[in-house]
Amino acid sequence: MGNNSSQPTVEQMVVNEATHMMPPDQIVQDHPDATVIAHPINTVYPKHFNFEDNTFKNPDVTIAQPPMTDQIRIYSEIMMARQFVPNEHQLRTMKPNWEAIHSPNHNNIQYTWLGHSSFFVQVGGFNVLTDPVFRQRCSFFQHLIGPKRLRPVPMTVDELPPIDVVVISHNHTDHLDLQAVKDLVRVNKQNMKLYVPLRMKAWLHKNVEELSNEQCIEMDWWQSIQHTFRPNVVPHPHSVGEQTASGVLDITFLPSQHWSVRNLFDTNYQLWGGFGFTYTPNNTTFPKRVFYFAGDTGYNNYLFKEIRTRFSDPNGGIDVAFLPIGAYGPRWFSASQHTDPVEAVQVAQDINARHSCGCHFGTFVVSTEPVLEPIEKLHQVLQLMKLDYQQYQPWNEHGDNFFVTVCHGETYLCKHKTIADNANVLEGANKDQNTAVILQTEREKLI
Known about the structure:
alpha/beta; Metallo-beta-lactamase, Chain A; 2 domains; eight-stranded mixed β-sheet; 17 strands
């Protein structure tokens, strides 16, 4: 992009937009690349953008790819890990609870795990889908090579109820399934909105012909957008009566410590992150419901505490958090980009989550740890900390345990505790032993 009066540089556009000299819509229309920074959130250069090489970055951590010799070694260890396929008792599946899915309790959060990082979340009449991946392999060549599903996807796009919101955390193949996006647009038409990180929108428009400009919304870290319910303008095959939502859903794109790549030449060209959701009912007698989808992330000492300060409901924390517990091996390579089970528990406490569900395990083998190890280690650390843990419970026994793992296809209804109950849970966890000390001293034993 040349530096002349008729074609301003990206840097000039930032200054112009910050001083309201150039309308944001005009920037987006005339200079698509400027969407990296041309939005109402940043009035100065964002600290997570590197102008020198035109990419995004983690503000305090550099995630570097290891030498080729180490990459070959990691790949060989991953191939060894793929040799073990858990039996049905070890890694269970459940048929979808269609009655619950089609008639959800609007006052509480209900979610169904579709595998890996894909959740179908229902609250207040809104249907939300996170990182939808429905294909058999997560690779660029899905029919030939790459990690294969250990368990089949519990339901298809065509079987899902109408979808209001789809969020995509980043562009890695185990989180962004292009065919799934095409199918979701085909089935839901203009009724669905897609919320994505900066610079993903142009790529999606290029690859998804039916995706309209209004349907796809790019977001930067800490940017919030209010999603208001729209009755289906195009009939959906699974609509049951007239759909109504009794409130609004605020969607916030939150930082994570990760990276992005979709081909050999676009490393960190697109942003990455997690999403926070706040449902505010019209009926003020009902409380807000807040849930958080972390996407992929490593752990650091300040990030999640900042999310707690800037996003969590000060009166009730986060009702439900979907946190990755797998793909952490080997640690010398993955520690900066993937949380292990110990760190996932720390994240839950950092953000003040009442209830967390572990994900990013048991679906695709993309790392070196044994397939079932994330569940085992999670259980161990929660036992040490005297926190509630639940695994594979019947529908009528669901509660609001501090941390759970669920079956592929299982629908979980959160019976939300009060703010006082949540405070008692965290107080009990720290009553006899300090949480930070446990996490620090037990790490080498557990991982």
